[in-house]
Amino acid sequence: MTMQTIQANNYPIYFNETATEALNLHISNNKYSNIFIIVDSNTNEFCLPKLLPAIETDLNVEIIEFEAGEENKNIETCVEIWKVLTELGGDRKSLVLNLGGGVVTDLGGFVASTFKRGVDFIHIPTTLLSMVDASVGGKNGVDLGNLKNQIGVINVPSMVLIDTQYLETVPQNEMRSGLAEMLKHGLIYDKKYWEEFLDISTIDFDALDQLIYRSVEIKNEIVKQDPTEKNIRKALNFGHTLGHAIEGYFLESESKTTLLHGEAIAVGMILESFISWKKGLISKEEYIQIKSVLKSIYDDVIFEEEDIEPIMELLIHDKKNEYGSIQFALIEGIGKIKINQEVENELILEAFEDYKS
């Protein structure tokens, strides 16, 4: 079935068959000088062969590739790409297409937003995570060491093109990673949507398009109310305050296997649901339901005693902090959120203990 275009803040989100059409119309209606497609080593191999033949243009199209992986989402990679853009004749009238997962769209959006003080860019997300999360809301940026998304801008693309055919090339663990953000959207905003995931074995993946569509719709509804994250948009940080710290620690630590974003966020959601329960915001039954659903989908992450301290350290640098205090977005019943919640360290430690049990 055809999915309606979603209107975000100042840009449209097109789905499946309408996406290519919209892209070609956009290119022909704007006097661009040339087109650059930013890819990583994975999307260059698996997704570019699908995109390239679909672009109808006489303009010069250049491919800029960087090595896949969160560890390359940094300013050094940006510097390399800015240099290449300059060498290949990039100017104010260039168009940048970001073809890839969240790392590509985050970094590519930042590169385009800052090159020549900003050129037009279009996101073409190719993973489940980037479709339901990174593609909506105009956040672009890079990591600073192990501090996630510490450097960046909020700047919207000309459009976002979501084509679920790209998901055929995505490995299972990456699909699960994207699912975490969809589960989050249900927990913070739509109880009925959350309930569609209660038994993962019954999900009809032909219905995945509809689930993705609803997820994008939820994120967009939240972002439209609060584009610059002064208020309700903070709801989207549920699971991310602890999740980002865990993800950053596992990325930097020599002895740890790097976690996918969704794997870290799933742990963060369990921990922050525990905190919500202990603060009297959700019932014990709701907490147990959340914990068992998430643990049925994601493998347990092993935390040693010595891991907790450095994770707590990373919380201090979380960009959601204000005036030196750590701000959590907690759930108040499934489908509702309470923002700007301060949480004592003892309670965070207790949450880790409970997770391990």
TrEMBL record:
Q: Which InterPro entries match?
A: Dehydroquinate_synthase, DHQ_synth_AroB, DHQ_synth_fam, DHQS/DOIS_N, DHQS_C
* Gene3D superfamilies associated with the record: 3.40.50.1970, Dehydroquinate synthase-like - alpha domain (1.20.1090.10)
Kindly list the biological process annotations in GO that this record carries: aromatic amino acid family biosynthetic process; chorismate biosynthetic process
Keyword Metal-binding appears in the UniProt entry: yes
Nucleotide-binding as a keyword of this entry, yes or no, is: yes
Q: What is its EC number?
A: 4.2.3.4
Provide this UniProt record's keywords sorted from A to Z. Answer: Cobalt, Lyase, Metal-binding, NAD, Nucleotide-binding, Zinc
3-dehydroquinate synthase N-terminal domain location: 64-176
Q: Which cofactor does it need?
A: NAD(+); Zn(2+); Co(2+)
Show the CDD domains listed in the entry: DHQS
GO MF, one annotated term: nucleotide binding
The UniProt function text for this chain reads: Catalyzes the conversion of 3-deoxy-D-arabino-heptulosonate 7-phosphate (DAHP) to dehydroquinate (DHQ).
Entry protein name: 3-dehydroquinate synthase
- Organism for this UniProt entry: Flavobacterium glycines
> Which gene name belongs to this protein?
aroB
